[in-house]
Amino acid sequence: MNRFLRFSLVLALLLLQLFSIPFLKASAEVITLTSDTFTDKVKEKDTVWFVKFCVPWCKHCKKLGTLWEDMAKAIEGEDEIEIGEVDCSLNKPICTKVDIHSYPTFKIFYDGDEFAKYKGKRDVESLKSFALEEAEKAARTKHEDVRDEL
């Protein structure tokens, strides 16, 4: 194999590795939910969705800074918990449907239904604890519902 071909192959492998890294960490990202995707996503079987509802002009939303992205990183690796975000200025029908009146609002959805609303401190540890507790409750509730059907 000549030097140019070998160099090209090595370069191609390095570029492939470099560009695949963000995809490997996709579970740590905040997923933007829209009018087209919201309903299908929050109905995903056995998946808890922790969703932030916000608008770009809200000073309280701006004050959060990278909190929601940090939360997504902190929850990475937890099975069946997704972190989502809805911009209510662009997706008013969703925000009306789920009864959003102030910003930011944080809600847990499970099997397509609102399961809980977060009202605690706005720090990563508090948000993460809440998400994990509610995910456990949701799984227990589903298990009890299945048992009752039998």
Automatic annotation (TrEMBL):
Signal peptide: 1-28
Molecular function terms, GO-annotated: protein disulfide isomerase activity
Gene Ontology biological process terms, A to Z: protein folding
Listed transmembrane segments: none
Gene Ontology cellular component terms for the protein in this record: endoplasmic reticulum
CDD domains named among the record's database cross-references: PDI_a_family (cd02961)
Domain named Thioredoxin: residues: 10-137
Annotated family: Belongs to the protein disulfide isomerase family.
PANTHER family linked: PROTEIN DISULFIDE-ISOMERASE C17H9.14C-RELATED (PTHR45672), THIOREDOXIN DOMAIN-CONTAINING PROTEIN 5 (PTHR45672:SF3)
Listed name of the protein: Thioredoxin domain-containing protein
Species assigned in the record: Vanilla planifolia (Vanilla)
